[in-house]
Structure formats: structure tokens, C-alpha cells
Design brief:
Length: 110
């Protein structure tokens, strides 16, 4: 199974993304310009793809609701595309996904 399918099937994660816009944005940012590895290496170099995944998880909107949402980090704890917060990394690690060196481009934040 790939990361996208695992995210869609994780009911608790989808519910969290629906209720917490900052969490949803941080998840989107963690998929942009980042590679994740489990059984295979997954990379969403298209920010549109990452935005579409989050919109699907939230069951509303489309990729444009998330596209470039991290270009101007704000007081709502939005982070830049390619940034992986500690919380998102821990969740993905629990699902068996780890950052792959080919995707480590942007500074990580807590």
C-alpha cells in the first residue's frame, strides 16, 4: 500500500485533518518536496498532488485550498512546503513511513 492510500484509510487521521486546519496544513507541507519510505519511496514533488490528498482527506475543497499555503508561515503555525513538524513525523513513523534522504531539503521544525 502506498502513503496516499494509508492516509485515506486512517480514519482518525482524516478526522483530525477535518477538525484542525493547522494539522492539515502541516501534513500537506510534510508531503511537499519530501520523500517518504516504507516498502517503496514516495515523493510528492507536485504540491498540487499533496494538496489534493489533504482535500480528499478532509472531504472538501481541492488542491488549491492548500497549494502554497506555507509560502507565508503565519501565527496559525503554518509551515513552509517541505517542512516536517515533529508531530507529523512521529505520526508517519508510527505508520511505518520514514523520511528518505532524497527528500531532505528544507529545515525541520518542532
Amino acid at each position: 500500500m502506498n502513503l496516499e492510500m494509508e492516509l485515506y484509510r486512517n480514519v482518525n487521521l482524516c478526522e483530525r485533518a477535518k477538525k484542525d486546519l493547522t494539522f492539515a496544513q502541516n501534513l500537506y507541507a510534510a508531503m511537499c518536496n519530501m520523500a517518504w519510505k516504507k516498502d517503496e519511496v514516495i515523493s510528492y514533488t507536485s504540491w498540487r498532488s499533496a494538496g489534493s490528498i489533504v482535500a480528499t482527506m478532509r472531504e472538501e475543497g481541492d488542491y488549491m485550498d492548500w497549494y502554497c499555503s506555507g509560502m507565508i508561515p503565519d501565527a496559525d503555525d503554518n509551515v513552509e512546503e517541505g517542512t516536517v513538524t515533529r508531530e507529523i513525523e512521529e505520526i508517519l513513523n508510527e505508520m511505518g513511513w520514514v523520511k528518505h534522504p532524497s527528500g531532505l531539503k528544507i529545515e525541520e521544525v518542532e
